[in-house]
Amino acid sequence: MGPLPRTLELFYDVLSPYSWLAFEVLCRYKNIWNVSLQLRPTLIAGIMKDSGSLTAMRFLTVVKLEHPELLEKVSRELWMRIWSRDEDITEPQSILAAAEKAGMSTGRARELLERVSTPQVKNQLKETTEAACKYGAFGLPVTVAHLDDETYMLFGSDRMELLAHLLGEKWMGPVPPAVTARL
Amino acid sequence: MGPLPRTLELFYDVLSPYSWLAFEVLCRYKNIWNVSLQLRPTLIAGIMKDSGNQPPALLPRKGLYLKNDVRLLGQHLQVPIHLPKDFFYVIFEKGSLTAMRFLTVVKLEHPELLEKVSRELWMRIWSRAAEKAGMSTGRARELLERVSTPQVKNQLKETTEAACKYGAFGLPVTVAHLDDETYMLFGSDRMELLAHLLGEKWMGPVPPAVTARL
To answer: Which among A153, A156, A165 has the least Cβ separation from residue B76?
Structure first.
């Protein structure tokens, strides 16, 4: 068995287009590099004065708690709404539509949506946002790379080639050839 | 004879560490890609004033981030960049007006030396190792005397206004003139994208040295 995978934490908010860019590149590389990608739904409003994604990010927070295997898809569907089709992400209907498109049943999506205003979910989102701030974030996306001897906080979607350099991995551009998943 | 080289304009200020990173990468690629690199000494203070933007270091968390970012990029890009110990004094008190006027007159009189002199100035501000740019002391003194002349002051002003017209809110700015379209790219981290727009190959920030295009 080879060396342990290095952990990458991606703090993101669907309100942030650059977060989407970072997300897609890291999702491509998570099966190529020896890394473990942890997605961390965060509230950019908690880092700077911005608004509009509170419900969506709380929804992603509860998705991560209950169906972590769906977090990538639901996140992507929310970005597709706001940053690809110029659709709303603030109304409950919008969030349900995104969840359904990601493969969640309407019933289950509705249940999770009801939980977004519970203390557990509100606090979890708050904690994640505070964690990003503790790492020194002044915006999103933020990628935190945990290496053997050092932890790096990288801001923006344009630090992926540098990330590869720090990991000692190969950078093959933003659209690497698809590779069979690591076993 | 192949297609005409595409023009890249690099607007830069030696006060800007990211400008140095952009400069070095573009200087490496100017002999690899089919481009003509035009160096344009600009005053970042003028860009900030005109756009209403602020230097990133004024926001405390950005300032902290910048220190690490510049250090890591310096390693990755193989540029010997080190933050000066009196960083705030250097940036905000001393500034770069004379330096950028000097580069303006160098561009007017000795354009072939502009790359070297620019690098020398960055080395002084941003690196502990200094190199000589190859200009005689006498000639340098002559040019230095001209920095406060209307011609030089106006030229720097015009270049800064040109950057603003392209939409600059900071430096470095690379303007790529393609057949059908002009692109303004901000930052030292848009070079892979630039390669994509040019239809050229990106070989990382330190490409293998290639014999100059003939």
So the answer is: A165
- What number of helices (H) and strands (E) belong to chain A? 7, 4
B36 SS3 class: strand
ipTM for this prediction: 0.84
Q: Is B121 helix (H, G, I), strand (E, B) or coil?
A: helix
| B205, B78 Cβ separation under 8 angstroms | yes
What pLDDT, on a 0 to 100 scale, did the predictor assign at position A96?
A: 98
B190 touches chain A (CB under 8 A): yes
Q: From the list B65, B76, B187, which residue is nearest A136 (CB)?
A: B65
Which pLDDT tens digit goes with each residue over B102-131?
999 999 999 999 999 999 988 888 875 333
User: Which chain B residues touch A171 with a CB distance below 8 Å?
Assistant: 204
> If you compute the radius of gyration of chain B from its CA atoms, what whole number of angstroms results?
17
Residues of A in contact with B79 (CB under 8 A): none
Side-chain half-sphere exposure of A139, counting CA atoms within 13 A: 14
Region A2-18: mean pLDDT is: 91
Q: How far does B160 lie from chain A, in Å, by closest CA?
A: 26
Q: Coil, strand or helix: which one is B14?
A: coil
Find which of A135, A165, A171, A172 to mutate to test the B interface (most B CBs within 10 Å of its CB): A165
- pTM of the predicted model, to two decimals? 0.88
Backbone phi, psi, residue B36, to 5°: -120, 115
Helices assigned H by DSSP within chain B = 17-29, 44-51, 60-77, 87-88, 97-109, 114-126, 137-145, 150-165, 191-198
Q: Compute CA B165 distance to the chain's CA centroid, rounded to the nearest angstrom.
A: 18
Q: Which residue of B has its CA nearest to A155?
A: B65
Q: What is the pLDDT of residues B62-105, one digit of tens each?
A: 999 999 999 999 999 999 988 877 777 777 777 889 999 999 99
**Smallest Cα–Cα separation from A35: which of A66, A8, A1, A67?**
A8
Task: Confirm or reject contact between B73 and chain A (CB < 8 A).
Answer: yes
pLDDT, mean of residues A147-176: 93
Provide, as residue numbers in chain A, all residues whose Cβ is less than 8 Å from the Cβ of B205.
Answer: 161
Q: Give the CA distances from residue B163 to residues A113, B104, B124, B195, B205, in Å, rounded to whole numbers and listed in that order.
A: 48, 15, 25, 21, 24
Q: pLDDT per residue over A16-45, tens digit each?
A: 999 999 999 999 999 999 999 999 999 988
